[in-house]
What does this fold into?
Amino acid sequence: MMSYEIDPKGVTLTPEQVRSRRLRNIAIGLVVGALVALFYAVTIVKLGPGVMKPPI
Amino acid sequence: MSDLAARSGTLHSAASAGAEPRDYWLILKPRVMSLVVFTGLVGLLLAPVHLHPLQAVIAVLCIAIGSGAAGALNMWYERDIDALMTRTRDRPLPAGRMAPGEALGFGATLAVGAVLMMGLALNWTAAVLLAAAILFYVFVYTIGLKRRTPQNIVIGGAAGAFPPLIGWAAATGTVGWLPLILFALIFFWTPPHFWSLALYRADDYEKAGIPMLPVVAGARATRIQILLYTVLLWPIALAPLLIGAAGWIYGVAAFALNLAFTGLAARLLIERGDGAARVMFKFSLLYLFLSFAFLVIDRALA
It folds into this structure.
């Protein structure tokens, strides 16, 4: 194993690392948003017409 | 994750910027996924049950994600041999753009997510079949067989043969004769498909120590095996006609496709050089695509 000096300011990302992290964040955001929409839609489809007539 | 990776000094080179979304897309093996999605969709379309369009979309999505998950887990496990082969050394893991743990976590999460979504949105028969396909590809093919035996892709081919069964089960909740025939069609198609590729990539496989048939048994034995499998495909390709699941349109197409496939395999036996093997590999893709497409066309026009 190699030894490392600990930088008290923490890890400093290079501009390329910042860029790829931003791209990853955007991608995760889009995927999570799409899943929310998909799960909402499939819930409605699975419930079918019954969703309009809840049992009392 | 990439910060940790950079600090560990073993996963990324200092210059690496970490994985981009494109790299996550690439480890899903999108080209394999496209054929998996297509054969799964055909299984779904041929089923006698009509699904709500959204459920059909989700079924295909789960098959796609499951296939991608299996691809990612395969790339995680094979990163050492991928680094040795020209064809695969630019993949995100051997190229150092992605840490192994990222691929493992990504693949495992997608696999569990796809199976759960299939079970909850469609049915648990399809979910169990999807799980079986992923587990078979990762544990039986990738970890168990690939580095040990030249029969790796023969037995492992079962993993790739699952999609029509999964698609059919997503619609019906059961398994029928037609999807089982399609399973057999992909299963017996896989060896001539992969061995054609292995014929002109034998050096790569040898360098990586993978016992593909051309490396272990030589080119001539491989060419004979390819021809034998194309002959075996005849009764399977014509079986949908015998059980009454397809008509003359599919029958004519299947006859012509098998004639061409067997013909190219025979030519491969006679001609030396890589050219015939490359043609065989390309045609094998077209063969499977058209065989499945004509089943749907036949059904639509009948």
